[in-house]
Amino acid sequence: MTLSTRQRLTLQEYLDYDDGTDTRYELVDGVLVEMPPESRLNHRIASFLFGEFFQLGISTELLTIGVQIAVSSLEVTARQPDFVVLSTACAEALESASKDVITVDMPPPALVVEVVSPGEPGEPNYDRDYIEKRREYAQRGIQEYWIVDPSREAILVLTLKETSYEEQRFTGQTSIASIAFPNLNLTAEEVLKAGR
């Protein structure tokens, strides 16, 4: 649902906005757009990844669910990934922020994970995660972006090379190869089933 406002909001107005509810919004072309509740599977996968990265020895100060990332786009101003591993510099910059938003002047996170909803090419769910966010996250300099796609039973690991991502696809019992986290020992199936 799109909330109509008298004027388009700037990023700062968005950061200052509080309607007194727990409703989550993304800012799209200056307009607040209510984000639908995440599926139970999305929550399970994000929580599973949080636990796995914690077991790797990554501090909980760097692991986050719910942080937003300001992006440079003609339409969208801020995205909310399912799971993020912050870089140390990014975590330090967030400490003094008034909201849990990684603004464009902050260093990028080390890893962003999106668990995609079902959809086909040309449909909003697919295009948002496979095309739009891919472009936006590359522009932000995010070194690694995972697209976790339960309906296609695949995980794409995108690694930034200069200004665009190189893609590796992982399915089934194939171990996920992460340049940012080489000690990670997970298969695609373990992630897709959230450890079940």
Automatic annotation (TrEMBL):
Q: Which SUPFAM superfamilies match?
A: Restriction endonuclease-like
Query: What CDD domains does the entry give?
Result: DUF820-like
Its recorded name reads Uma2 family endonuclease
InterPro entries under this entry? Nuclease_put_TT1808 (IPR012296), Restrct_endonuc-II-like (IPR011335), Uma2 (IPR008538)
Q: Per the record's keyword annotation, is Nucleotide-binding included, yes or no?
A: no
List, in alphabetical order, the Gene Ontology terms for molecular function in this entry: endonuclease activity
Question: From which domain of life does this come?
Answer: Bacteria
All residue ranges annotated as the Putative restriction endonuclease domain in the record: 11-188
Keywords for the protein's UniProt record, in alphabetical order: Endonuclease, Hydrolase, Nuclease
Where are the annotated coiled coils located?
Answer: none
One Pfam annotation, family name?
A: Uma2
